[in-house]
From TrEMBL:
A Pfam match: PapC_N
Lineage of the species this protein comes from: Bacteria, Pseudomonadati, Pseudomonadota, Gammaproteobacteria, Enterobacterales
InterPro entries: Fimb_usher, Fimbrial_membr_usher_CS, FimD_plug_dom, PapC-like_C, PapC-like_C_sf, PapC_N, PapC_N_sf
Keywords, alphabetical: Cell outer membrane, Fimbrium biogenesis, Membrane, Signal, Transmembrane, Transmembrane beta strand, Transport
NCBIfam families per UniProt: PRK15193.1 (NF011740), PRK15198.1 (NF011745)
Protein name: Fimbrial biogenesis usher protein
Membrane in keyword set: yes
Protein family membership: Belongs to the fimbrial export usher family.
Compartments, as annotated in UniProt: Cell outer membrane
Top-level taxon in the UniProt lineage: Bacteria
Amino acid sequence: MKRSVRRDIFEEKGLMPHFSSLAAALMAILYSGMSSAESYFNPAFLSDDVTKVSDLSRFEKGTNQAPGTYRVEIIVNEELVATQDMNFIAAPSGASIKPSAGGLEPCMDQRWLKRIGVNIAAHPNLSKLKPEECVDLVKEVTGAEVTFDFARQRLTINIPQASLLNAVRGYIPPEEWDEGIPAVLLNYNASGNSGSNGDSYYLNLQSGANAGAWRLRNNSSWSYSTSSDGTTYNRWKSIGTYVQRAIIPLKSTLVMGESNTNNSLFDSTGFRGARMYSTDSMYPDALQGFAPTVRGIARSNAKITIRQNGFVIYQNFVPPGPFVIDDMNARISSGDLEVTVEERDGNNQVFTVPYSTVPMLLREGRFKYDVVVGTFRSGNSQQSEPGFSQLTLIGGLPNGYTVYGGGQIAARYAAAAIGIGKNLGNWGAISFDATHAYSKLADDSTYDGQSVRFLYAKSLNEYGTNFRVLGYRYSTQGFHTLSDVAYKQLEGYDNQLEIDGNYSKVPIVATYYNLRYNRKQNFQANITQSLGEYGSLYLSGNQQTYWGTTRTNVMYQLGYSSGWRGINYALGLAWNKTLDTNENNRIASLNVSIPFSVLFGRRYSTDSLLDRAYATVAASRDSNGKNTVRTGLSGTLLEGRNLAYSVTQNSGSTSGGNVNLNWQGTYNTLGLGYSYGRGQHDLNWQVAGGVVGHADGVTFSQPLGDTNVLIKAPGAAGVRVENQTGVRTDWRGYAVVPYASNYRYNRIALDTNSMDQNTDITDNVANVVPTEGAVVRATFDPRIGVRALFTVKRGDNLVPFGAMVREETTGTTSMVGEDGQLYMSGLPLQGKFLISWGKDAGSQCKASYSLPKENLKQAVMVATATCN
């Protein structure tokens, strides 16, 4: 879409009368184009002297726009299917073309009709046409409609369902999938803390390279800490390295190196080897999967550390009160997560967040597989690395049934599983499976056992209830997992988890294991309930019992939140208990935020600066009787609302306060916090961002996702990207949009209102379809230069109305209006116009121009050009 020049600019320059005349003339031309094929437009209507009017015969037949190739959005049955170049031809005489079509109609051949799903076999006349011959879809397919909006460059097609193949809605053919450009990537996340008890620093680097369909990735971390007693810890650790590529004909993904198995049937484990599996995201409406949401309540300014298989996969600082972490990469978050909340006073919370998939269902005829061959891999030094292989198969049957099964084999372990799932329609979906396992533990004792599992998922939309996961598992006393067999001894602590880079001198109770206490019953729940205008409730939890002991592992969280006239409030309860201590840890919290506009008696409006500033009150109480009350101020600043701040003062058991700033910038995200208390102070910071190296140079960005889009708009500096907070093009006109959707259309749009007065763009929207892990390029063609309004003369006379003009250097075109007025944008300061108003040599001329550099700040320059 071409950027429009604001009306107030022309009024300020006194140019409106000229543009009004020009607009009237152009409307007359367009009106003539709407008339019948035999109509004739008399140039005398424009001027008494017809020599002052160019040859307008090209408008007589209604062909307002020149036939050719145009890049258009293609909408089929109200769904965007592509943004691509398409050939348009002049509409034949008698065609029912709307004025908005510009007298053009699309040339659609058989190949293109197959692309949009037309059933060629059902229409014999279509089969008789040559493959490259243009098809009149409206004539050949009864009930079909074709509409072209030239101004919006949008082609809309409606086809009756009976004339379409039975293709899945949302299908995007693989030939449109973009493997992306060769690129080198680096994602960094650094955090640090300096306080009374010492300093600690953490750096996570996710690096990689793309070449064609291949993706190379490495995940590494560095930890450094010094304590008040002089102890220093310094360690670099590689979490995993692998190569990956999509196998498109099989709709599968191949991974080789260090990665994780799927946990749909067996527990997720780390491995070093190869894995090949069906990829749901390659299918149009398959489940995309989900990452677990970690919730909790921090009593003070705390550090959150999340581990999986002994590796730190997430670390960040949070202010006091409830926190929600829902931005972890789904690839690394399958399986149980160990969450440590390190409070400022040293009283840490440690709990486990389980993660199970929804019932495994496939539509009829679908088939999925997952094959892994390699060695067991864990970040826990208490475990060995036995070789193993794993196979999972899932098939969709008629009547809503799904059957699945698989096996897992190692030197001292063998397991087989089989299950069935059923779509119950309005009653949701369930699955049931059973696993039999043979195990030989570290003391050479052997066991046989079984485990049965039940999963249920349902969204009761009419009641606002969503059972995201509701599951139950029962295991007999002799049932063990592959992870159990990998332990070198029957009892101990899992590596005594690292805290601030140091192995804890005191065993962490949450890491305690005892293989004699193997798992018995497990209950999982994740339920949300909408209460309409009265807010919403959520319940999540896990309860695990064991054979050989009455002690349990328990984690439950219950919360309620709502709002009224901009006032938000939330109640939260958390309860957890660990196997080793069997002690109950409970904490309750209340949080209220009130917009300042409400305090001042004004009506709440999200656009008001006062409504982006909140007074906050929060209170919490734990099972040890510690009470904390926090009051403070928080909000967002800047035009893009990308600077968040909070100031809090604590009273009660934990006195003190903290200040936090978080900025989401073009090239990174920054966080800074300071907290103080009784004889204690801490300063923490965090910086995260990404770097992409490509053929055109290096581009810095906000933290990268798994799949990313590189914007290329040469010369268009500082332009905002729509719906992307803080993302702008750099000084060269490049930017990175992170977290693109795999195998789906991603709409990338530049905000034309953020362009400077010397930048225009013909089309500010691009659509890309990236494969997993790709860096795809969205290219734009900005016109960088001056906007100017010329009065063009030829001798003592003005250049005729309707003359066509092309700037020699840039190729920019326009048309002369009344009184020789010519408006053009994207011009260099010096150039030459090629002007023609007829077919003979005497109806053409050239006009050189030169614009003063000191007038560059003007929105529109006014100048005169002489045509020779």
